[in-house]
Design a protein that fits this description.
It is a single chain. Strands 2, 4, 5, 6, 9, 10 and 11 form a 7-stranded mixed beta sheet that branches. Strands 1-3-8-7 form a 4-stranded antiparallel beta sheet, with no helix packed on it. By secondary structure, the chain is mainly beta. Helices cover 0% and strands 56% of the residues. The chain is globular, with a radius of gyration of 14 Å.
Length: 117
């Protein structure tokens, strides 16, 4: 089992920045993809960004140029730096880890990000 714990959410004005962190613990597969999803009220959960343990990083078009995903493999931690935040970025942000070989998927509990106009 893998446990994911997020932190860093909060309330920020439009144009501001926040940094989310997610630390994995437990039986972490060596080859994996860690990423961030978000879910706004009444909407589906959508991919925001992902970063494999080795490989190409990906972003949703809506956050390209504003958000940056990074990871510290030694700390089993993934970060999401969010700049130039917009009210439409308001959502619960979920950390995600996928074991590349088995496809096992794990989720964090979510952290609320609210951007005021």
């Amino acid at each position: 089992q893998v446990q994911l714990v997020e932190s860093g959410g909060g309330l920020v004005q439009a144009g501001g920045s926040l940094r989310l962190s997610c630390t994995a613990s437990g039986s972490i597969p060596g080859i994996n993809v860690m990423g961030w999803y978000r879910q706004a009220p009444g909407k589906q959960r959508d991919l925001v960004a992902y970063k494999p343990s080795s490989g190409i990083t990906g972003y949703a078009d809506s956050v390209k140029g504003r958000f940056t995903i990074s990871r510290d493999n030694a700390k089993n931690t993934v970060y999401l730096q969010m700049n130039s935040l917009k009210p439409e970025d308001t959502a619960v942000y979920y950390c995600n880890l996928i074991a590349t070989i088995t496809g096992d998927t794990y989720w964090g509990q979510g952290t609320q990000v609210t951007v005021s106009s």
